[in-house]
Amino acid sequence: MNSFDADILRFLNQFSRRSFTWDAFVTTLEEVNLLKGAAIMAGFLWIWFRDGENKTRDREFVLLSVLASAASVFLARALALTLSFRERPLRTPSLHFQLPYVMNPDALSSWSSFPSDHAAFAFTAATCLLFVSRRLGMLALFYSFFVICFPRVYLGIHYPTDIVVGALLGAAMAFWVKLSPLRTVVARPFLRWERLYPSRFYTIFFLVGFEFSEMFDSLRAIAKFVLLGAKTAADQLLR
């Protein structure tokens, strides 16, 4: 373990178990999806429906941002499954981590911590929002750091470097959204579908927005199963 991770974790961990209310509050921030993906999705919905001369551009940004956010989650999870397994800080003996009140010691016991797919998701979405609304984007970046990422470090779910790498991965994914030709090509069929068949479009849009709001938990679980199955099959073929 590097000193950067160890120093930050030990500093934060000294506040653990000093207050049941504080530990329970941080745990709630981590566990309640309404306080994570749903809040960011609300920002995208505001962009989607706001009035202005650039409505088409705004909607292109929203569509590409949702796709980029989903892609960043699956890329981060794929890296976590293919790179060497990294145990969570709360189960790292050398840290002598003091588990906060309420926190489940067996949380994510079979999931590698590096990189953080939550950080990848949050910083992809927040950076995309920054491209269309500086004020909303800055608020989303602040929110992503303190509401989505900080609790995961405090609770021992991630090392700081897991968050940093996830955030850099997410920001890099977001810059694809700035490519105007790519936005137009990808978003045009969806926008045409929205104009011609709004009932069908918004039914699917709701379902996608729901998955976005829960940070693609269901799809990540499915993807994990598929990737593990593919890896197991590949290992057996190479024997």
Based on helices, strands and strand pairing, what is the structural class? mainly alpha
Question: pLDDT below 50 for ≥5 consecutive residues: which ranges?
Answer: none
Q: Level of helix content?
A: over 70%
- First and last CA, distance: 32 Å
Question: Over all CA atoms, what is the radius of gyration?
Answer: 19 Å
Strand content: under 5%
**Shape category:** globular
Q: Please count the helical segments.
A: 10
N to C succession of SSEs = HHHHHHHHHH
Mean pLDDT level = 89
The major β-sheet equals: none
Number of strands: 0
Short description:
The protein is mainly alpha-helical and 239 residues long. The protein contains 10 helices and no strands.
Care to describe what's here?
This protein is mainly alpha-helical. 72% of the residues lie in helices and 0% in strands. The protein contains ten helices and no strands. The protein has helices at residues 3-13, 20-31, 37-49, 55-82, 117-132, 134-154, 160-174, 180-196, 198-213, 217-238. It is globular, with a radius of gyration of 19 Å. The two termini are 32 Å apart. The model has no long low-confidence stretch (mean pLDDT 89).
